[in-house]
Structures are given as C-alpha cells and as structure tokens.
Design a protein that fits this description.
- The protein is mainly alpha-helical.
- It has one domain.
- The protein is built from four helices and no strands.
- Helix 1 runs antiparallel to helix 2 and helix 3 packs antiparallel against helix 4.
- The two termini are 27 Å apart.
C-alpha cells in the first residue's frame, strides 16, 4: 500500500486521539512526562492531528511528536506495526487470489 494515498478516516483519527490520550495519561502516571509537557503535547496533537488525511502524513506527525515527547514512542511503533500487519494481510490475499486464478 502506498502511504501517500492510503486515506485515514475520521473514525481512525478518533481512535488515534484515544490511543494518544491513553499514552499521555500513562506517561504522566509513570512520570515519563510532566503535566506541563503533557499539556503542550496535547496542544500539539489537537492542532496537528485533525488535518491528517493520509498514512504518510500520520507517520510524519507521529515522528515529529515522538522527537519532542518520547513518551509517545510506543504509540508510533504500535500504529506502524498495525499497518504492517494490514499490508501483509492484503498482500497475502492478493497472492491467494492469483493462485486461485492460475489453478482455475
């Protein structure tokens, strides 16, 4: 799948907001991020997440977020790995369809 054309739906953006909020709360509880820095990161998230339309934009946003606030690294890796699984499943389905077409 092409990250420049893979569309991120508004529903997925809402899911990502929730994932990031959980990561922020967890980071504050574990003292990985101060309350002040969590507020700054929340402002950054609110200003930058909604306009995202493609997977490439999402990856860029997460990379920028993690550079400033490493407490979100787990979210970055989680979302990247989820996408890799989806991509692999789609590739597998394509191969299976090709095999079916060859054997028919």
């Amino acid at each position: 799948m092409d990250p420049n054309t893979d569309i991120i739906t508004p529903e997925r953006i809402k899911e990502i907001y929730n994932i990031l909020a959980d990561a922020m709360i967890d980071g504050v509880e574990k003292m990985e991020i101060s309350e002040e820095e969590s507020r700054k990161s929340a402002e950054f998230i609110l200003q930058n997440l909604d306009p995202i339309k493609t997977r490439a934009e999402l990856i860029s946003f997460l990379e920028e977020l993690c550079k400033v606030w490493p407490t979100y690294n787990n979210v970055y890796h989680r979302l990247i790995n989820e996408q890799k699984v989806i991509d692999d499943q789609q590739k597998l389905a394509e191969v299976e369809n090709s095999i079916k077409n060859i054997t028919q």
